[in-house]
Amino acid sequence: MTRLLIAPYSAIEETVRRHRPSHLLTLMVEPFVATPESIPPERHLRINVHDVVGPAEGSVAPDRGHIGELLGFARDWRRTAPFLVHCWAGVSRSTAAAYIILCDLHGAGYEDRIAKALRLRAPHAHPNRLMISHADELLGREGRMIAAVEAMGEGRAVWEADVVEMPVDLSEL
User: Fold this and answer.
1) From CA 61, how far away is CA 48, in angstroms rounded?
2) Which of 72, 88, 98, 101 lies 20 to 30 Å from 107 when distance is taken between CA atoms?
3) Residue boundaries of the structural domains of the chain
4) pLDDT in tens, 41-50
5) Model confidence over 52-100: pLDDT tens digits?
6) What is the chain's mean pLDDT, rounded?
7) pLDDT tens digits for 4-24?
8) Which CATH number fits domain 3-163: 3.40.605.10, 3.90.230.10, 3.40.190.10, 3.90.190.10?
9) How far is the C-alpha of 147 from the C-alpha of 35, rounded, in Å?
């Protein structure tokens, strides 16, 4: 198995060069992120959302449609190369997306285990609660994803995160 990479915007170029991911998920409104040459355009999804947990004037809040799009895109990943997900700082939207992808990949019952592994590897993680809430509903997790993320507690405060490598294999979590 391979890894799911979580990165800030500033680390995209180096992370793509170093890890050669097959897929790239961009979760931010500005700036426009060009698709790296090594990634086919159809394997780069841009979801234009702000890091907000509810409607706010001038902001695009993540909605169920965005999370459905994220899930559909991630389900096409064959796990032969890493999957890179990024937002501006690598703290909230990207950690939420990584958690959502791993929960979908492994199915119900692994929400706590995945959340604990995320906290261990990303002590700064503060997964966007609105994204988690939508995913919990879409995946029929009956509040387990939300509860697991809440149980993680607050993440360590950082302006920008380091690149995090999350294993996909449950035996490595």
Assistant:
1) 9
2) 88
3) 3-163
4) 999 999 999 9
5) 999 889 999 999 999 999 999 999 999 999 999 999 999 999 999 999 9
6) 96
7) 999 999 999 999 999 999 999
8) 3.90.190.10
9) 35
> pLDDT grade, residue 1 (50/70/90)?
low
Buried b (16+ CB within 10 A) or exposed e, 103-117: bbbbeeebbeebbeb
**What pLDDT sits at residue 19?**
97
Q: How far, in Å, CA of 2 to CA of 139, rounded?
A: 23
Sequence letter at residue 86: H
Does residue 173 have a pLDDT over 90?
no
Distance CA 36, CA 21 (A): 10
Alpha-helix runs per DSSP H in 11-168:
12-19, 64-75, 93-106, 111-121, 129-138, 144-151
* β-sheet bridge partners, residue 25: 45, 85
- Omega cis (within 30) before 31: yes
- Residues 6+ away with beta carbon under 8 Å from 42: none
